[in-house]
Design a protein that fits this description.
single chain, 154 residues, alpha+beta, four-stranded mixed β-sheet, four-stranded antiparallel β-sheet, 3 helices, 8 strands, 19% helix
Length: 154
């Protein structure tokens, strides 16, 4: 994201499913915002969402299971307060005939504070930034799981 380059400006940039949280080095986020601003036409809009720090902290120690006839998934989350990051370990078992194969993924999400993101958006050149609660056209609440942003370039 911090290296985004488009051949010509666009009216809308959309970045969903907490993709921004995957920029797990905070210094990369302002660079990404500057690139998005450069990619937009005047009057363009940047829409994105984040998993909130509240949600990522609440995931600490949680284990999720998903099972079907041909797959079994174990998903564990750990929040590291010193690093301000949530780590997800995902074990996936898939049936292949009479045998099962195992694969593993580790994901890491940074817990960005919404005020910090708004500051970086403004510094990148966005004229107006609006935050919305999870699936609601209202300001985010204290215990919001996800926040949606709309940043406008003038």
């Amino acid at each position: 994201m911090q290296r985004l380059r488009l051949p010509e400006p666009v009216d809308l940039v959309v970045c969903l499913l907490d993709s921004l949280n995957y920029l797990d080095e905070p210094a990369d986020c302002p660079a990404a915002f500057r690139r998005v601003w450069q990619a937009l036409t005047p009057g363009g809009v940047f829409l994105f969402d984040i998993n909130t720090p509240y949600k990522l902290k609440e995931l600490d120690g949680q284990v999720f299971l998903d099972e079907t006839e041909n797959s079994y998934c174990v998903w564990r989350a750990e929040f590291d307060a010193a690093e301000n990051r949530c780590y997800y370990g995902i074990d996936l078992f898939r049936r292949q005939g009479a045998l099962w194969t195992r694969s593993f993924e580790q994901h890491c999400e940074y817990a960005y504070e919404p005020q910090t993101l708004e500051k970086w958006l403004t510094e990148a050149g966005f004229a107006r930034v609006v935050q919305y609660g999870d699936c609601a056209l209202r300001a985010p609440q204290a215990a919001e799981q996800r926040i949606y942003f709309a940043a406008y370039k003038e």
